[in-house]
């Protein structure tokens, strides 16, 4: 079909020339037609021998180049897709790692908080213990001061009593009063 079309195109100038010679469009000049066909065949032969092969090779090279470019584009697309999957995987891993770090930091914060609370509790207990010890020391000191005061008062009373004559009933009364005063001091 393609060859018939090319032949028709080649013969159309001859038909136009024959129409100009004075004949009708259907009148054919056979001498001219033979030369046109002979020229066409020679040109086609020369073109087939010289031009069609390089043109075909050029078209083959162009087709191969286009195919190679398409293959390269497909390979690049596949590589890009793989690279995208790798990046998404890395992003997922980074997010998991970040979540892990955050969880570790939260646990560390909780541990530090617990340690601080425990340390504060221990220190508070130590302060309370020292305060209780101080209270006991102050109490003992107060008791000792009272004893000293009582001893001093006893000596003063004794010296006054000595000044008076002590009988057995007075002496008994003084000892009982002293014991009662000591009992009151201990209860405090």
Q: Tell me the radius of gyration.
A: 65 Å
Biggest β-sheet strands, sense, barrel: none
Low-confidence stretches: none
Helix content, binned percent: over 70%
Strand content: under 5%
End-to-end distance, in Å? 135 Å
Structurally, how many domains make up the residues? 2
One letter per element, helices H and strands E, the order comes to HHH
Oligomerization: single chain
Structural account:
There is one protein chain. The chain folds into 2 domains: 2-122; 142-187. The N and C termini lie far apart (135 Å). With 188 residues, it is an all-alpha fold. The mean pLDDT is 82. The longest helix is centred in the middle third of the chain and has 134 residues, at 30-163. Helix content is 92%, strand content 0%. Helix 1 (2-20) packs across helix 2 (30-163).
Q: Topology, please?
A:
Layout lengths: L1 H19 L9 H134 L4 H20 L1
Helix pairs in contact: 1-2, 2-3
Question: TL;DR of this structure?
Answer:
Helices cover 92% and strands 0% of the residues. The chain is an all-alpha fold and 188 residues long. It has two domains: 2-122; 142-187.
């Amino acid at each position: 079909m393609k060859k018939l079309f090319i032949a028709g195109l080649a013969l159309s100038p001859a038909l136009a020339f024959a129409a100009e010679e004075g004949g009708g469009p259907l009148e054919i000049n056979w001498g001219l037609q033979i030369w046109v066909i002979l020229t066409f065949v020679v040109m086609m032969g020369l073109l087939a021998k010289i031009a069609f092969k390089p043109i075909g090779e050029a078209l083959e090279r162009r087709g191969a180049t286009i195919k190679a470019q398409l293959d390269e584009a497909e390979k690049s697309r596949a590589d890009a897709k793989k690279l995208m999957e790798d990046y998404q995987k890395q992003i997922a891993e980074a997010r998991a790692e970040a979540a892990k770090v955050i969880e570790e930091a939260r646990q560390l914060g909780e541990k530090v908080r617990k340690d601080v609370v425990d340390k504060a509790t221990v220190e508070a207990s130590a302060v309370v213990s020292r305060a209780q010890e101080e209270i006991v020391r102050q109490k003992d000191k107060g008791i000792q001061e009272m004893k000293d005061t009582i001893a001093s008062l006893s000596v003063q009373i004794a010296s006054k009593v000595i000044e008076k004559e002590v009988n057995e009933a007075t002496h008994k009364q003084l000892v009982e009063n002293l014991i009662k005063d000591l009992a009151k001091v201990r209860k405090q």
